Amino acid sequence: MNMAQLFEKKKHGKELSQEEIKYFVEGYTNDSIPDYQASSLLMAIRLMGMTDEETFYLTKAMIESGDVIDLTSIKGFKIDKHSTGGVGDKVTLIVTPIIAALGIPVAKFSGKGLGITGGTIDKMESIRGMRTELSSQEFIDNVNKHKIAVAGQTGNLVPADKKIYALRDVTGTVDSIPLIAASIMSKKIASGADGIVLDVKCGSGAFMKTQEEAKKLADAMTAIGEKLGRKVVAHISDMDNPLGRMIGNKLEVVEAHALLSGRMEETHADLLEECVIISSLMYQVAAGADEQTATAAVKRVLEDGSALAKFEEFIVAQGGDVADIVQNDTAHKVAVTAQQGGIVDTINALLVGEASVALGAGRLTKESALDYDAGIQLVAKKGDKVAAGDTIAYLYSNSEITQDTINKVQSAYKMA
Fold it and tell me: Is 161 known to be catalytic?
């Protein structure tokens, strides 16, 4: 067996065996297969696709490339959630304390952001003192005591994915449904939770631009999870428009806290609706409840303040200072005004995401430094009526804000 044979086989649309896929994953992870051979196979997969069986074998081989976290010492059914990434997506910060407040253990490993997709770990690290690197024992103890822990991924969790994703990122093979499904599910399964809710984003600010693509990805990931003995549910949500009003690390933490505090004037109904849906699904999977019962339970802990209390308990448990959850002043603040009047029909999430990166809220490369206070506040949201010259957004940054960035946010707004 050699890589030339695998490439020729996949190039002609033939199915790779479990042994062939394992050979590739092991060889590339241990450096016996060079980048140029691996990238050729990845491109063939990108062009020709993979069967459900191939995708499953790829995921399994990636899981077996490193550590698998043992969460059996955590009492109860452990639930996790994953978002395929979006603009203004601070859902994890909100739904995890909701579920923990309902007595369900939430054991979640998250990543840092790259490009327009914000990372939960970056948002958490914007809070003074907040620790995202926890030992295995600390992580388990926090979940047992507080019902919640969110931490960065460990160094040897699915090392094959780290290497393969880095190569995909520079070879134009990121947007392959089998490769995305294997990447996400290998990390989720290796993280040890019993159940997983997948939030698959769809639209201009997501990898999946159409409902059809999003459903294919959701179905692929659900099938993988079920074959590996996990309870998995997928939900497809809109990412044509940014979620909520705030985009940027500290800004999104502030908005999450505002929503949990019931201060809806500081956030938006689209974020609340999404969080209720995801929380309800998590509760249904973990507790075996029906949708009506789960949704009522979620709304109860939001209204009685126990979800907020759990959020603050979680922050403190990981060393964070709750008093630091405030919007900080930045060196530069610019108002963006509407170029024409009308009803906001859509706010292009991709353009808003690109503007947030330009302000310093996101990374262009993994080595890029973040401005935790940078970001965008959307004053006008979809459905709002505005007049020409009205302020539709504010931009925040500790670096100079360019006219190009202002123009990008202006052009993101389309009026009906």
Answer: yes
**How many angstroms separate the first and last alpha carbons of the chain?**
59
> Per-residue pLDDT tens for 300-359?
999 999 999 999 999 999 999 999 999 999 999 999 999 999 999 999 999 999 999 999
Catalytic residue among 10, 46, 82, 235: 82
> Are 342 and 319 in a shared domain?
no
Order of all β-strands in the sheet with 332-337: 246-247, 375-378, 391-397, 332-337
Residues 99 and 200 in one domain: yes
- Residue that finishes a domain, picked among 272, 296, 323: 323
363 is catalytic: no
What pTM value is reported for the model?
0.93
- Rounded Cα–Cα distance for residues 146 and 108 (Å): 13
Residue-number span of the structural domain to which 362 is assigned:
332-415
Active site residue 183: yes
What is the per-residue pLDDT for 350?
Answer: 94
Q: What is the model's pLDDT at position 375? A: 97
Q: Do 193 and 272 sit in the same domain of this protein? A: yes
Which residues, including other chains, have CB under 8 Å from residue 300's CB and lie 6 or more apart?
A: none
Q: What is the CA radius of gyration of the chain?
A: 21
CA distance 378 to 171: 34
Q: Is 225 exposed, middle or buried (0-12, 13-18, 19+ CB in 10 A)?
A: buried
CB 250, CB 277: distance < 8 Å:
no
Helix (H) or strand (E) holding 406: helix 403-412
Residues 6+ apart with CB under 8 A from 76: 103, 104, 105
Name 62's Cβ contacts closer than 8 Å, sequence gap at least 6.
Answer: 25, 158, 160, 161, 164, 182, 183, 186
H or E stretch covering 348: none
* 219 contacts 254 by C-beta, under 8 angstroms: no
Q: Which of 296, 323, 350 is the last residue of a domain?
A: 323
Residues 88 and 237 placed together within one structural domain of the fold: yes
Is residue 154 located within the same domain as residue 17? no
CA distance 351 to 409: 7
CA–CA distances in Å: residue 273 to residues 169, 263, 279: 33, 15, 10
- Please pick, among 65, 83, 176, 183, the residue that the annotation labels catalytic: 183
Catalytic annotation present for 122: no
